[in-house]
Structures are given as C-alpha cells and as structure tokens.
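Late entry, written up from scratch paper. The run itself happened at the end of the previous shift, but nothing got recorded in the book at the time, so transcribing now.
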Amino acid sequence: MTRNKIFENRREIAAKLIASLREGGRLGRANYFSTRPYCDGEKKYRFSMANYLRLAAMNYHYGDLHDPRWYTMEDVSRNGWELKEYARPEQLEVWQVSPEGKKTCELVDFYHATDIPELEPLPDKETTLKECLTELQAKNVLSVSDKVSLLDGLQSVQEYARSHGANELASVMASQIWLTESGVRANYNAQHNLYSEELLTAAENHPDILFTAAHQAQEVLNKLEHEPRRELVSTKEEAFSGLEICYYWCETDIKDTRGEVYPEDIILTGKAAYEFLVQYNAMDKRSFNEKFADNRGYHKSGIEFRYKDYDHGEMRIDLGDLELGGRASVADALIYRLDMYRQNLLRDPALAKRHWTENQQDGKNEGTFEEFLERVKKESTDFRSTMEEFRQEEVSYLANHPELEAINHERANTFLYTVRAEDIDKLPYGIVMDKVSDSVSEGHLLKELNFAVHDYIATYPANPIPYQNPKERSAQANFTTEKVVTFSSGWHPSDIAHRLQRDHLPPVWVAVSPREQELFHQLEDFHLNIIHSAPCGINGHERSLDYQGYSALRTLNEELGSEDREARTAVEQRFSLRGEQMELSFSYKEESLFHASYESGKQELFQKINEQKGMLPDDLREPVATISKYLTYDSRPTELLQRVHTIWDNFPTMEESRENYIKDCKADLDIKDAYRAANYYSIVTLLNPEVKSAEDFSRCMVEEMVNDGITPGRMNKIIEQSRVHAELKDKIKQIVQSPETKSALRKVKAQMSEQDETAEITDAR
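Output as recorded:
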C-alpha cells in the first residue's frame, strides 16, 4: 500500500478523533495501549502512535477494551483457535523495510483477545489517583502540596512538554495520553476543556498534525518516563498530619470556606483535608434541609478516607440522606458512617449470618461464625480507638478556628421518633442517629407507622383519644410514657415503615413536640374542595370531593404535581388529551384563599395561581412548613403555594394533538375490536376544536366513523363500548340511524369504490 493511501486513511481516523474531542474532550478510552504491547502469539511490539490513535478512535465508538492483546488471522490459525461468531477485526498499520531500504506499510486485520473464547481475560489493572500524582511529584514535575488534583497533574505534564520543545497541540496530547496510560479511572471530566477551539479548528483544517503531535507527545512522555526519581519527605504538621482524603466526584458543588469549588479528583492532606470534611459534613446537613423547601433528593459522591494506619478505601456517600449522621463534629460523623455496617453486623445476628455465609460461598476464609463476629468486633474497637486520636486533634484544632466550629454545629432538621425502651437496640444502626431523651411527655403527638403513616394522627392529651382500630387500641394500651425513648433520624416515615415491615422490626412512633401539635390543630381550619366533571359532560356526572387539614394540603399538592407532570409530558410528546373540567377552591377559617375553574393538564391552573401571589396568610405559614416534614419530599406545600409555576410556551394545540394521535394510531386500528375502536373515536372526536358540548361530540363522533366507511351495525357496537353515559349512547345511535347519516355513508362508500377502481386501473397499466 502506498504512503499516500496510508496517510489518506489516517485523515479519516483523524476526523473521528476530532469528532470525539468536540463531543467529550477526549480521544477515546485507549487505556494502556501505548505503554503495553500487542502480540501475535510469539513476538511482542510496542504500539506506534499511529496505531494508538487508530485504537483510540475505534474504542471510542465500540466500547472499552482494557485487554491489550491483538492477533492476526495467521496467529489464530497457527494456535488452533476459533473466533466468536460476530468477531470484528480492526486494521492496524504494519510497517516493513525492504532489502533495498524502502519502507512499506500494509493495513492488517487484527482480532481482539475478547473475540477468542479460548483466551483467559487479563486482570484489569488500575492505578490510584495518589500513585499517579505522587509519581509526578517524585520526578519534580508536580509540586508537593496539601491540595493537589488531577487537573494539576495534567497542567504540569503540559508544562513539562512545552519545556522540552513540544508545540501547543503536542503538549495537550502529552497530558491526555499520560492520563490514559496512567490507568486512573475517574478522569473523563478532567479532559473536557483540554482542547481549545483554536486547536480543534487547526486539526480539522490539517488532520495530519494530529498524528505528528501525538508522535511528538510520545517522545516527551518517553523522556518523562526516564526522569530520575527523588524521595518525597513528608512534612510534619501540627494538626492532622496523618489525614488524607481523595475526593473523586459529587453530583453537587462542594465549596471551601472562601467559596471556591473543590475540583474533582483531588488529594487533600492535613488541615486542607480536615476543612474539606467540615464542608462535606455541612453539605450533607444542608442538602437534607433543602428537601423541606424544594423538590430535591440526595447527591451521590465518591471519596476515600485515610487516617494514620486506617484506610477505608473508596466509598459512595449520598449527601442529603444524612449518611454522616447530622453530627456536630467530623470525628462523630466519620465514626457514624464508617462503622455503620460493622455495628449492624454486631446488632443483627441474621444479617451477620447472611454476610458470613456469602463470604464462605465466595471462597473467603472467615473461620467459624463466632470467630468472624469476634474479628468484626475487634475491627470496630480498633477503628474507634484510632478515631479517638482524630477527635483529640479536632478539639485542639477547633479551639483556634471558631469559624469551622460554627459550620460543624449547623443542624439538620431531622425527624423525631419514639420506640419502646427495650426495643431501641433492635433497630438498625443508621436509622437511629441519636437518643433525644429517655422519656417523652404525654403532650407529644404519636403516630404508629405500622398502621397509618400518612392519614392517621392520634394524640395523648390528659385523657388520651382512643384508637378506632382494635390493633391500634392494643398498641396504645401497651405504650406508656415510662417505657419509651425518643430518637432522631434522617429517615422519612414512609421509608422506616417499609423497613419495619420488611425486616419484622419492633413498632416505631413519630413524636412531635407540643408546639407542633398546636400548629397541626390550626390546619383543621384549612379546607379544600375539588369538583371533577368529564370533558363536554359526556360521562353525565360530576364528583365533588372535600378535604380538611392534613389531607387537604396533601391532596392539593398531589393535584399540582399531577398538573405539572401532565403538562411536561404533553410538551415532550407533542400530544395532550382533552382534560376533565375542574373547579378547585381552598379556604382558611371560612375565608376564601383561591378559586379557579380550568381544564386539567392544560396549564390553566398554573396560570391562575401565578396571577394570584401570596395565597397563604401569615398564621398558616408556620403550620404548613411544620407539616412539610411529614410529607414526602416531592410534595412541599410551602414551596408549591408560593412559587411561580413554569408555563411551557410550546404547549401542543388541539389540532397538533389530534394530528399526531391519528398518525400514530389509525394505521393499527382494527374496527372489529369494538373496545379499542371506541377509545380511538372518542379521543379523536374530543380533540376536534369544534366539539364544545355533548351534542357536538355525538354528531362529530358519527361523522368520524362515516368518513372511515364504517357500517351502521359496526358503529352501534363501537358506541356500546364507549365510556359515555347511557342516555348519550342512545342519542348517538339515533344519529347513526338517521337518513342523513345513511345518505352520507353511501356517498363515502361510493367514493371509496371509485378510488379502488382507479387504483386497479393504474396497477394494470
């Protein structure tokens, strides 16, 4: 193959690479390819940069291939291997020198090791972020610091490349190839902004420079590989010298005390690591509190924790679920999270037995079950002993840093529960965060989760109000103030109720303060009325529903949430059904706060709410905010009644909805299936803008069926299956039997017959 052909083929490869750089800022996922060999069964070769880029382009489009081994068909045949049925070869450059000294190249098909079933897969090796950056520091390429990130490493390699004569593109590619060769897993976000628009445009105009720059980058990396190493001497700090945090990623920004965002893939040591943990713990509590004011969940994150000889390794923590326990010190937060599973093993014999059995089945030698429990207990004791040293460092350090002490003492607005004193140790570690007190006064409001989590509220005044359910009465009789403990938890009542039922745990009650009980009583003056009636009255009835207090607030928010979901779905799918005719009103202490008539799912309710702001009177705001703690986090009364609701500008019209529905459904319509046909013609008719009453609906539905040439007998069967009320069905059937309908049907059938004859003549010609 001529050199021109080879370089023309490389330009095609370059185009793929540039497309991936524009999309995600990376060449692909060619991990290990340029430093590890490919082999033909006997010989081993180092990948040229040309083949590195070929594999990077291929791997971007076809997935990760961590195994570096590639084989020709000759290798496969010589070894007696068989390829998988759908094995796909990739063409790599093989250069040879003739006896005359002339270089020639052929593109040879190579098969990846995963296409050969007989080959055992190689283990997937991975370098830690610390090893990766420490190597640069040991070669004096990256400065030693208590805050060093993967981004710092990338920039230091770029500077090294520039200082050794590499141009701008080669410097960037050197840093990126260094990254893929390092084997660091969490690196894709760091690559996003490596390539400037200027570099990408230059590569598009002259694709050859991509291969030239990659070759130059590899020469720089070869020099870097042979740089002499020096011994890194750790500097002794006054506080937290044994602390190290690897912060990999998070779904939300974590900021330091100066308001700067911590970059992902960063190693923090000493005081910088402690400050990060302070902000990390605070973010867990702040995110939890935000659930009461907005429709938010948790934020997944990944970190590693090391302190002196203790290394917990990488772990996922969900900020906003109080996985750090809502603690007022970092030491307590770490003990709560890192020792949680060991404590559950020691508390729950069934869980410990299951864990021990699974490990035995996996070939892990855990010894006897008793030996396993003793080892878990010792690990927990040793860990807590180490963390006591951390606590002493923390107390000493915070004495001179009141600003961090203040952040530690931010509170999470947790749920309060009560449980029988003899049952407190039977609950999983993680549900129980802190004991609030050893007893609870009779004025507290109690609600047993095993019975009625959302709807039933029972109080304990001077003369307790008896439960209505016999099972509830029995529980109340056994639940005396001398036998209970109150504890805080980040778990929502519905989540705890599910866990109690699933794991057959003892009963738990919600405990609310006397002040909150008074606020709840104020909600009894809040009333909601909703009237539903079918579109155009075709169902012949309407429903009027009244709600009071807690149920009124919850139902109102469910209605608003349903409206929001229907509108969003309509915009996304470009289709909206004709909604029910609604009338909604709510009042407080006989004073009307809001009244609106609207069609459901059409954003009309939100438009009317936006026109009337500040609907909650001042004396209702605190009760509503209080009860928010006992609603699911996607249903927040305070937020939903105060905010301006989003109105979609491109909401689909009835005409567009009708057109899309006919296009999607008519081709598959089987008029012999009367039920489905009735549903189809009802929807099509209701989506006709001319239909504004039951009479319009009756006439237009028949017209739709006439236009499709449906016989009167079949029409009657379809009408019988429709969901309209009986009286309207009779009226529609009368229209079907009218002379006007029969005459119109004859004309339609004549036209259909004429069209069929014309089509037959055309086909014959």
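The chain has 27 helices and 20 strands.
(Scratch paper discarded after transcription.)
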